[in-house]
Amino acid sequence: MENIIDLLEALTIFCFGLSWPISIRKSWVSRTAKGKSVLFEIILLVGYGIGIARKVIQATCMDAGGFLFGLSFAFYIINSIAISIDIALYFRNRKLDEQREQAEKAQAKA
User: Fold this and answer.
1) For the purposes of burial, counting CB atoms within 10 Å of the CB of 16, is it exposed (0-12), middle (13-18) or buried (19 or more)?
2) Which sequence spans correspond to the domains of the chain?
3) Minimal CA–CA distance to 9: which of 68, 79, 77?
4) CB count in 10 Å sphere of residue 61
5) What's the pLDDT tens digit per position in 7-58?
6) pTM for this one?
7) 3-state SS, one letter per residue, for the chain
């Protein structure tokens, strides 16, 4: 039964993780932070951090382990990295938005 629980957790995290490459690509290509919620992403990052802490506690205090356990732990790490990249792109894009707005204001004055 524990294997099924670990499998379901790994699949859930994997499915959540499928969206991050798409989001990262969109952030990279669009070069704008408009329509993006950094607070939402930070909340998700905190959630993945809690999931990682849970896995560490399970591994150290409850002798949990195995392939599926490690797989779900790896997906937590990979998703955390992906969200961190998307958050970094948000701040890059916000800076680009500000630069565009300043250029538009300067052009309007000229």
Assistant:
1) middle
2) 39-110
3) 68
4) 8
5) 999 999 999 999 999 999 999 999 999 999 999 999 999 999 999 999 999 9
6) 0.90
7) CHHHHHHHHHHHHHHHHHHHHHHHHHHHHHCCCCCCCHHHHHHHHHHHHHHHHHHHHHHHHCCCCCHHHHHHHHHHHHHHHHHHHHHHHHHHHHHHHHHHHHHHHHHHHC
CA–CA distance, 103 with 110 (Å, rounded to integer): 11
Place of tokens 């930070």: 42
Residue 98 tokens read as 């500000």
CA–CA dist 53, 49 (Å, integer): 6
